[in-house]
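Posting for a labmate who doesn't have an account.
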Amino acid sequence: MTDKLDQQTLGAFLNTLASKAPTPGGGSVSALSGAMAAGLISMVCTITSDKKQYAEYEQELRTIHDQAERIRSEFQDLAQRDIDVFDHLAAAYKLPRTTDADAATRRAAIQKVTREATEIPLHAARTAASLLPLCTTLAPRCGRLIVSDVGVAAILARATVQSALLSVDINLASLEDKIYVREVRAQIEDLSVGLAEETVGVLEIVRSRINQ
């Protein structure tokens, strides 16, 4: 049995990712990119809070750090859940369809698990979007030599939103509940609005700090 993600070495994870194994895939990678973005934010807060010249931001840094750590843990959980739900979906597709009753049971099971598989990356996208305001607040309040890490976090957060939403899209294509599909597509649109501009805003602060 494959070890849980948090029990694997980085090398083992990457080797499995590059293999023909069905998991981990794009959903887990998206979540882990979000976890890395959150980790960078935590690191910058920790390093900056040790500097006397940034003492006036101590409370803000502590708040951002705590939020980032909560989000990092959430993303690690989402990465594993993405793998688990794929396994459940694969099991649903293997259910018998010999009789009409079997076929109906199988179809219902596939729809149920596919909806679960949609919710996980949608949650990841929402969570990743919540990292960008943290980056906006942190960029002018951290050490100049590590401000680029805030920029990297912002870029990863945006990429996490976009990549997670691709996973949402591919699952929506298999769902029969059109009302639910419309609701999720509206959420996708909301999450996408202003995403690029918010990221650019962070990077403008980062570059202005770098060039001070």
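Reply:
Got it, the structure tokens are right above this. The helical segments are 10-17, 26-49, 58-93, 100-129, 131-138, 147-172, 178-192, 195-210.
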